[in-house]
Specification:
- The chain is an alpha+beta fold.
- It has a single domain, classed as Gcn5-related N-acetyltransferase (GNAT) (Aminopeptidase, 3-Layer(aba) Sandwich), CATH 3.40.630.
- It contains two helices and four strands; from the N terminus they run βααβββ.
- The radius of gyration is 15 Å and the shape is globular.
- The two termini are 30 Å apart.
- InterPro entries: Acyl_CoA_acyltransferase.
C-alpha cells in the first residue's frame, strides 16, 4: 500500500479509541462516552441490520470515518436508501 493512499475498511471494536479521538477532533467539547458505554454503543450499532462504520487511514493514521445505515422505505417502490 502506498504511504499517502487512503485505505478504507470496516471499523472494528479495537478501533474505538482512535475513532473516538477523531470524533473529538471533529467536534471539540463534545462529551466523550466512557469506554464501557462506547463499546456498548458500537456493538449495538454493528448489530443493527444494514449498518456499518467505515474508517479511512492514511499512512496508518485514522483520518476519516463514515457511519452508514440502510433505511427501509415505503416510497420509491419500497426501495431502501442509505443515510
Amino acid at each position: 500500500m502506498e504511504q499517502n493512499s487512503l485505505h478504507i475498511s470496516h471499523a472494528r471494536r479495537d478501533d474505538l479509541p482512535t475513532l473516538l479521538d477523531l470524533y473529538q477532533h471533529l467536534a471539540p467539547g463534545d462529551a466523550r462516552p466512557m469506554p464501557d458505554r462506547a463499546e456498548e454503543v458500537f456493538d449495538q450499532f454493528m448489530a443493527f441490520g444494514g449498518s456499518a462504520i467505515l474508517i479511512g487511514e492514511v499512512g496508518g493514521v485514522l483520518a476519516a470515518s463514515c457511519s452508514l445505515v440502510v433505511v427501509p422505505n415505503l416510497t420509491r417502490g419500497g426501495s431502501p436508501y442509505m443515510d
